């Protein structure tokens, strides 16, 4: 359990869990489930994907996008998994500070040749598209 | 366990996992208790609450295999582990189980078989998940720029356990 850090809207929060049985790494019976809470109100639940299964055992990380539904606040994360018949729980915490935008950053951009070169089309982290003025257009 | 930074006059609401050897439990000796220290001085005892987090009421439990629980807007997902208590009639539903989500208002308890017709009552909560909640007030002794320790104590099967958590006031 840990304080994961301070983030802005539009960023990704890595939510990790190292599945353990005692002090040894182990594989859970199914993918760990992470529930994200603002205070005690649940925002959403996510299944954690496994990371590097060929190199390390039982390491799962979910990249949580701070988009729609999130705001400047303090959040709790509760991750549950089972190893054999034992139920495990791990808690994390993170904070969203002011700044950023729920749509995130531009991840790709398309521009057009003249005569449409006045504009560029951008794809954002949040899945939205936007049209912006091409600074090199005429 | 570092909980983070909290402004003075804000309310701290932090999830705490109660575990023994990383296994989630609900202490048999009752709810956990906590005390808050700054350095070697006790700051607050009896301020705020440490109570079960993510809970719900049950309005139905099928006499089937597996038992299907009805709980309005439960918000659980397949793979969650919950502890069910106080179900009347179909008492096989009481205990700690993995669940499978079957709808927004229903979920099944893995590995269960009904023991009778549901009569009344019942609650569920996510096993081992508690919420530490209190106001960070100067009247309670909190000061900006200082770090505080929270000692959490609980009893299970007559054995005493403790956990530590830390936070700073900004």
Architecture blueprint of SSEs:
The complex is a heterodimer of chains A (138) and B (170).
Chain A: E1 2-9, E2 12-18, E3 20-21, E4 24-25, E5 33-38, E6 41-47, E7 59-65, E8 73-83, E9 86-100, E10 106-111, E11 119-124, E12 129-133
Parallel strand pairs in A: 1-9
Antiparallel strand pairs in A: 2-7, 3-4, 5-6, 5-8, 8-9, 10-11, 11-12
Chain B: E1 2-6, E2 11-17, E3 19-20, E4 23-24, E5 33-38, E6 41-45, E7 49-52, E8 55-57, E9 60-61, E10 67-70, E11 81-85, E12 95-101, E13 106-109, E14 123-126, E15 129-135, E16 147-156, E17 159-169
Parallel strand pairs in B: 1-17
Antiparallel strand pairs in B: 2-15, 3-4, 5-6, 5-16, 7-15, 8-14, 9-10, 10-13, 11-12, 11-14, 12-13, 16-17
Please summarize what this structure is.
With 138 residues, chain A is an all-beta fold. Helix content of chain A is 0%, strand content 59%. Chain A starts with a strand and ends in a 5-residue tail after the last strand.
Q: Overview of this structure, please?
A:
- The complex is a heterodimer of chains A (138) and B (170).
- Chain A is mostly beta strands.
- Chain A is built from no helices and 12 strands.
- Chain A has strands spanning 2-9, 12-18, 20-21, 24-25, 33-38, 41-47, 59-65, 73-83, 86-100, 106-111, 119-124, 129-133.
- In chain A, strands 1-9-8-5-6 form a 5-stranded mixed beta sheet, with no helix packed on it. Chain A has a 3-stranded antiparallel beta sheet with strand order 10-11-12, with no helix packed on it.
- In chain A, a hairpin with a 7-residue loop joins strand 10 (106-111) and strand 11 (119-124).
- The radius of gyration of chain A is 20 Å and the shape is elongated.
- Chain B is mainly beta and 170 residues long.
- Chain B has 2 domains: 2-50 and 131-169, Sandwich (Immunoglobulin-like); 59-121.
- In chain B, the strands form 4 sheets. Chain B has a 7-stranded antiparallel beta sheet with strand order 8-14-11-12-13-10-9, with no helix packed on it. Chain B has a 5-stranded mixed beta sheet with strand order 1-17-16-5-6, with no helix packed on it.
- The chains are: A mainly beta (138), B mainly beta (170).
- The A-B interface holds A 1-3, 6, 20-22, 30-33, 35, 37, 39-40, 42, 45, 47, 74, 76-78, 80-82, 86-91, 93-95 and B 1-6, 13-17, 19, 21-24, 53-54, 75-81, 96, 98, 126-129, 131, 133.
């Amino acid at each position: 359990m840990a304080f994961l850090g301070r983030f802005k809207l539009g960023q990704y929060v890595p939510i990790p869990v190292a599945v353990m049985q005692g002090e040894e790494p182990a594989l859970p019976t199914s993918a760990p489930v992470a529930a994200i809470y603002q205070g005690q109100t649940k925002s959403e639940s996510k299944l954690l994907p496994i990371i590097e299964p060929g190199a390390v055992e039982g390491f799962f990380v979910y990249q949580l996008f701070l988009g729609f539904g999130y705001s400047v606040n303090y959040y709790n994360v509760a991750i549950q998994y089972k190893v054999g018949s034992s139920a495990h729980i791990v808690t994390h915490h993170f904070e969203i500070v002011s700044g950023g935008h729920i749509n995130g950053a531009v991840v790709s951009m398309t521009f057009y040749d003249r005569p449409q070169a006045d504009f560029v089309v951008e794809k954002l982290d949040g899945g939205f598209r936007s049209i912006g003025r091409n600074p090199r257009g005429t | 366990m570092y909980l983070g930074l909290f402004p003075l006059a804000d309310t701290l609401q932090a999830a705490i996992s109660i575990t023994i050897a990383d296994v989630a439990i609900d202490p048999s000796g009752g709810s956990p208790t906590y005390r808050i220290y700054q350095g070697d001085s006790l700051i607050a005892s009896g301020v705020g609450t440490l109570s079960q987090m993510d809970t719900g009421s049950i309005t139905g439990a099928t006499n089937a295999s597996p038992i299907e629980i009805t709980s309005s807007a439960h918000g659980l997902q397949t793979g969650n582990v919950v502890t069910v208590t106080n179900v009347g009639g179909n008492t096989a539903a009481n205990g700690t189980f993995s669940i499978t989500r079957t709808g927004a208002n229903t979920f099944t308890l893995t590995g269960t078989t009904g023991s009778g017709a549901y009569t009344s009552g019942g609650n569920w909560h996510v096993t081992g998940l508690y919420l530490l909640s209190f106001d960070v007030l100067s009247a309670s002794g909190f000061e900006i720029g200082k770090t505080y320790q929270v000692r959490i104590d609980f009893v299970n099967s007559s054995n005493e356990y403790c956990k530590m958590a830390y936070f700073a006031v900004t």
